[in-house]
Amino acid sequence: MPFSTLGLDQRLLKSVSAMGYERPTPIQEQAIPPALEGRDIVGCAQTGTGKTAAFILPSLQRTRDRKGLRTLVVTPTRELAAQIHDVARDCSRHTGQKATAVYGGVGYTPQVTALRRGVNLLVATPGRLLDLQNRGDVDLSQVEILVLDEADRMLDMGFWPDVRRIMAHLSPQRQTLLFSATLSRDVLKISDKTLTKPVQIEVTPSATPVEAIEQTVYPVNGQQKSELLIRLLEKNQLDRVLVFTRTKHRADKVCRHLERSQIRGAAIHSNRSQTQRKRALDGFKKGTYRVLVATDIVSRGIDVDAISHVINYDLPVNAQDYVHRIGRTARAGASGSALSFMAAEESKGLRDIERLIGTTIPCEDVEDFAYQKRVVPHPQRSAKKPVRKVYTGNGRPNKRRNRRGSAVAR
What we know:
Elements: H1 10-18, H2 26-36, E1 41-44, H3 51-62, E2 71-74, H4 78-91, E3 99-102, H5 108-116, E4 121-124, H6 126-134, E5 145-148, H7 151-156, H8 160-167, E6 175-180, H9 185-194, E7 199-202, E8 213-219, H10 225-235, E9 241-244, H11 248-260, E10 265-268, H12 274-286, E11 291-294, E12 309-312, H13 319-326, E13 336-342, H14 347-357, E14 388-391, E15 397-400
Parallel strand pairs: 1-6, 1-7, 2-4, 2-5, 3-4, 5-6, 8-13, 9-11, 9-12, 10-11, 12-13
Antiparallel strand pairs: 14-15
């Protein structure tokens, strides 16, 4: 199906063509037509599926002839806000509409200046948007379309009270588009209270990793993780590697180990200023840094092509975050690898991950590495996938049983 069959006008089609899009992705194909009709939408889609254009394009078309701020996109992190703004700017290149983004960690005054020049589509993080509202520097009274992107992450990060305060300033007759990587019970409750007779779109199972990703577990003593990381980077000459740690302190610690081994790396987490985060991400994209070390709080804001390996230095506390992490590799049809370090205290986390994805992940050792005392998962462990919750339209999940994985570790 070409983009021309979705109902988009010629100016938007011209922008789409200039952006290099030839055919819509599944989420775009399914979301754009009902969004153009003014329907509310609940969309379940991972980052990297083209969902940003799926809500930006119909929003621009529905508000193309009206002045003032008409579309508001709320997203949890600065990186996501910047990326959505980039897409909105490219999509609106031939429509005459203006898009801007506001988020914390950067100067307040330049953002106010941009708003006063006039904006039709605003991308915002909740905290900075509330600051602008409280100071009278943004007017949301004309907003016709509200987009809630990464709703599950906003819940996890405790932003939902702020989002409710923002929505109190909007017209109840607005169109609302809610996108989430998962349809958890909490997300379903929110959609039931926030949306009106929404169209539900789920383009991929909410917890299925990209099939092109080769996944491996490395059992290791927790005190040897840094040493093992250096060995893997040097032995396999890994390049363009994204490393995830559980905390900001550990991210900085890993960077210090990399520096001592003369491996160029940078850390990105919430304690870094926006300038530092942007410098780290830009340097990683350009190849200045071989390794980018990140925490989960910014994981969904990292959209970099050609990441060859994702390394879970620490397994995530939430099994679903494993899916989001490894989804940073194998993008745009490329292959990729996800390597996970597992210390003894993380064995339950591994079981949770394997239950979620419905298969066991093979374990391997690094040759000639002097392992200290560690816990190695049983090779015949099972990974039965649990019942999956599916949206039914009434705020309550239906239960649907998935096929069960039966692979075993090598």
